[in-house]
Amino acid sequence: MQKAWFYEEYGPKDVQQLGDVLIPYPQTDQLLVQVVPGCDMVGVVVAKGDGVLRFDVDNEAEGKLRQLGFLAEFVVLEEELVVVKPKNVSFEEAASLPVAVQTTVEGFKIAGFKKEHTGKVDFVKGLGTDKVVDYTKTSSEGVEEKYDLVFDTIVDSRKSYMVAKEDAPVIDITWLPSNPRAWQTNLTASGKILEELGPHLESGRLKAVIDRTGPFPFSNGIEAFGKKLSSLPLFPPPMILLMHLMN
After folding, report:
1. Is the whole model's pTM more than 0.70, yes or no?
2. Which of 11, 60, 174, 187 has CA atoms 20 to 30 A from the CA of 80?
3. Looking at domain 102-187+239-243, does it have CATH number 3.40.50.720?
4. Looking at the domain that runs over 2-98+191-229, which CATH code has it been given?
5. Strands ordered across the beta sheet of 30-35
6. Tens of pLDDT along 99-146?
């Protein structure tokens, strides 16, 4: 048996329960990973199916499940969804990457961009951004310059279109997008995207940022969800990425 967080009804954070559930058994193409709890999945391989070729027991792995259900001590998932965790990245850092990285890269691919530039203004500038617009001080209407692409994580694409050039793509991660010009696509779980970005993680060019109050112990799952759902700002704050095409 293993400890896992689960819920049996919809409701506030308090409907979650911590209890005992069966440890799943890996099928032919699956890994059984002992999870280091976090958002998404990162952990140590403890068993594998006969068809798994790229991983061995005791390998450190990270990835994203196709379905919800990572708040447990063990999880099974297909080999194609998992990559080896870079040695210079902690378990906590790795746990923050799969959904965020795959959302970003898939958004750029959908928009047809092949190159990309790399909320606190100083923090964002420190990541390599050329120009920062502080949305707490400047409204979308007040941005004079128009951009080739807007990647909106603040959840209001109606305003994002104001800073985009005519017919320029606007990526909005909300459900459902708030602009009638928008069209929807679902995030695809993919270990390939994480593998492509592995060298950038190892070199330090791509960095994971952990909330300054975390990580939370596994037993404090309700507290962690409460922070996520509260009105308190998380670090880093949400941002809109503005981009010009590179020649």
Report:
1. no
2. 174
3. yes
4. 3.90.180.10
5. 74-78, 30-35, 41-48, 60-63, 82-84
6. 777 777 777 777 666 554 434 556 555 555 667 777 677 777 777 888
